[in-house]
Structure to design on (154 residues):
C-alpha cells in the first residue's frame, strides 16, 4: 500500500513540491487532514471548488487513489 | 468557440507555458499537429503513453474539449 501511495503522490510533486511541501505558490499538501484532503478532491471533481487545473486533474483519480493520497500526505511532516 | 478554447487552454499554461510555449522542461504544445495532439491525449487517457501527471490529468477532458485544445494549440505560433 505505502509504496503505491508514494508512487501515486510523486505526480503531485510536479506542482505541490516533494512530499507536498510546495515551493511553487501552490498549496502545500504535507500534513493536511485526511478528511479535508478527500473532501477538497471531491469538490474539485464536481467543480464546486473551481480550479483550472485541479477541476480536470482530480477527475483522473479513483476514490481509492484519493484515500491513498490523503493518507500519504496526512503523514508528511 | 475560440473564447472557450483559450479559457480551457489557460490551465495547460501551469506546466506547458503561456499559449503552450513551455519554459519548464515540459513539452511545448504551440503549433502541434491537431491529430497528433488528440492522439497523444488519448494515449495518456488509456495509459498507453505513460506519464505520472498526464495519465490522470487527460482523463478530466472530454473528446470535444480535447479537439478544442488541439485546434487552439495548432494555431499558436
Amino acid at each position: 500500500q505505502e509504496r503505491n501511495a508514494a508512487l501515486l503522490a510523486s505526480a503531485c510533486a510536479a506542482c505541490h513540491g516533494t512530499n507536498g511541501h510546495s515551493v511553487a505558490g501552490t498549496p502545500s499538501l504535507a500534513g493536511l487532514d485526511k478528511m479535508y484532503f478527500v473532501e477538497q478532491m471531491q469538490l474539485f471533481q464536481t467543480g464546486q471548488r473551481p480550479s483550472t487545473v485541479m477541476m480536470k486533474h482530480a477527475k483522473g483519480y479513483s476514490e481509492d487513489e484519493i484515500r491513498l493520497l490523503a493518507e500519504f500526505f496526512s503523514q508528511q511532516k
